[in-house]
Amino acid sequence: MRRGDVVVLSISSVLALIAVAAVTFSVRVLDHKPSNAEFESAGSSSSWLVLTWAPSLCAAEPTNAGCKSGHVGAQGSTWILHGLWPQPAEKQYCGVPKEIAERAGDLHGHHMPSVDMADDVRDTLQSMVSDASIMAPHEWYAHGTCSGVAPDTFFGDATALTQQARKVLDPMFTEAEGGRIQLSAVRDTFDAEYGAGAGERVRLSCRNVTGQGSVVYELHLSLPPVTELRTPNGTLSLKDLILKGPPLGPGCRHASVP
Questions:
Q1: 3-state SS string for 79-128
Q2: H or E stretch at 214
Q3: How far is Cα 110 from Cα 119, in angstroms, rounded to an integer?
Q4: Confidence (pLDDT) at 41
Q5: What does the domain layout of the chain look like in residue ranges?
Q6: 185: which of 61, 137, 221, 253 is 20 to 30 A away, CA to CA?
Q7: CA 246 from centre of chain
Q8: How confident is the model over 26-64, as pLDDT tens digits?
Q9: 198-211 pLDDT tens trace
Q10: Which CATH superfamily is domain 44-256 in?
Q11: Is 79 within 8 Å of 54 (Cβ atoms)?
Q12: Is the peptide bond before 151 cis (omega within 30 degrees of 0)?
């Protein structure tokens, strides 16, 4: 074999090894489901439970996967879970490789590694979000990785607290459908239900929808850090938690309710 052929063969071998290493990295690292030990909640001062008014989601974003499939509409007039967000807001994608972070930030069908959780937790989550197949990876990698808890605990607490909040919120927003609602009324209701000052931990977010103007879109509840939302016996009640979160600014003060 001529010397030039040996050099070419050697270079080809090196390139092949590099290609194999790159594929291995992609499979083992970029699509790796991170273990709980890789993430912690140091520096998290509080958390927000973020809920979306289901009719407003489909009015503002009709192409949303859960709206297109009819899943959101089937839930009726209710608040659905968007996420549980450790604060401060910039605390996201803790320990997540850049490639996965980029995919998790896009909710338009880009593949993301799945999230390990118990079947009952996943089923409950699906019943309370727009589309768990999209929202679970997005919320876990963006926010759950900074929570200091495992996926089952993260999503289990989020759904349990959403169920509690619905009991207070759904009746008043259903009654206001087709009309307007005031933030002050929502805050007064929380004060009556959970104690003076609870209403200061509630904020509304609104969106402009063609033909409807400004509509109520999301609601934020200020809570303690995610690691403090439960005891060994399970998720704590909103009554025990909400006054421990920092007060929030008002956000949107009044809007229509689709």
A1: EEEEEEEEECCCCCCCCCCHHHHHHHCCCCCCCCCCCCCCHHHHHHHHCC
A2: strand 213-223
A3: 23
A4: 58
A5: 1-32, 44-256
A6: 61
A7: 20
A8: 333 334 444 343 455 557 899 999 999 999 999 999 999
A9: 999 999 999 999 99
A10: Ribonuclease T2-like (3.90.730.10)
A11: yes
A12: no
